């Protein structure tokens, strides 16, 4: 059930692994250094899922309390080399196949808590073999920066470099795979071999390269394809349109999927969990919020960009943050003494966020107020306050349009007006639920979107058959805008 056919009983006993029959789960103990006391347990259940296995983890105590490494009691003070894995099962397989000291990280590829770093100081060489996909590779590079890249090597995912447990089951030579690990540190220039492997890795993992998809906003995923590290998203909308509410929900959607985030606005994000009429459930929901990898910057009033960037860099190092939400840019503007020109100050701040996103491989979502526009006009990319630098530096530009002054209440929609990843732009409608303070796709639009998708599929079939006059399928024809309303992204072009 767990794929442990080739893992021996001796290996399980050495790591003190047990099987709990009532829960149908493996039990992995977490000991204090030296094995003097039990710090916690992780229960791992397995469920068949097609040809693979889906694992379900339960931790005692809760996940946030874990600051230990599985396998630590077996490490000797004389050991100078160690292999880090993201799963206990891989740790077992590696140790059995190679005899090398191996440790499993408590939170897998999600986070490497700084509290664990002292346990790893004795090692002159650390090999990170975290998994067989693109996200594992990105996590390995991030953790290597924290551990000192000069002593780290990384096992690159690939057909011949699967997870350690799978490699053992396939009869591969795990020692040979470890010898092929690439050094994490290099000077300013990389070799063509490294670039070649980077590109191959992205082409082999197209879905993961596109980023994490939103579950509540499938149309946003359809246009942007996903939420990617190292990008800058600029978000704008009229005053009172619901920018803060939407951006909080947009961020929480990603956070519930494991994206570690920090936000400059803690009040509005937490307010999405409104329970005024169900206070008896507060502790239950508070526990769920507490388990989210979500953090907040406690700034009050205007802040300098240096202070904000320092805080963000600290969050990336300590909590492995991969998404920063700044709501809004203007709260830093008055503090900058660069110039009396607010436009120049904003350009400097946007440039600083762009550099941070690239250098830290962290996504930054930046809320910027629009210029003053006539109430009867829709916003465009040029409506973003300041010079064109914000829209030029941004990888994505999102505009929350509000047509209630023109077409009556409730006519809100989100416009993707820039998408550097693959160029797809378009709009889709949103409906605001005041009681829950959330946005959703209107029911009528859901039915209409399904019909449009079906129609587009039919058009695509005709086009592929070479029939004369067939119209090629285009993502913009499935934008989801309200009937008889032109797509503003097409009008702007």
UniProtKB/TrEMBL annotation:
It is an enzyme of class 5 (isomerase). It is a peripheral membrane protein. Its EC number is 5.6.2.3. Residues 452-493 are annotated as: Disordered. Residues 206-446 form the SF4 helicase domain. Keywords: ATP-binding, DNA replication, Helicase, Hydrolase, Isomerase, Lipid-binding, Membrane, Mitochondrion, Mitochondrion inner membrane, Mitochondrion nucleoid, Nucleotide-binding, Transit peptide. GO terms for biological process: mitochondrial DNA replication. It comes from the Eukaryota. The lineage of its organism: Eukaryota, Metazoa, Chordata, Craniata, Vertebrata. GO terms for cellular component: mitochondrial inner membrane; mitochondrial nucleoid. This is Twinkle mtDNA helicase. It catalyses: ATP + H2O = ADP + phosphate + H(+). It is found in: Mitochondrion inner membrane; Mitochondrion matrix, Mitochondrion nucleoid. Mitochondrial helicase involved in mtDNA replication and repair. Might have a role in mtDNA repair. Has DNA strand separation activity needed to form a processive replication fork for leading strand synthesis which is catalyzed by the formation of a replisome complex with POLG and mtSDB. Preferentially unwinds DNA substrates with pre-existing 5'-and 3'- single-stranded tails but is also active on a 5'- flap substrate. Can dissociate the invading strand of immobile or mobile D-loop DNA structures irrespective of the single strand polarity of the third strand. GO terms for molecular function: 5'-3' DNA helicase activity; ATP binding; hydrolase activity; lipid binding; single-stranded DNA binding. InterPro entries: DNA_helicase_DnaB-like_C, P-loop_NTPase, TOPRIM_DnaG/twinkle, Twinkle-like.
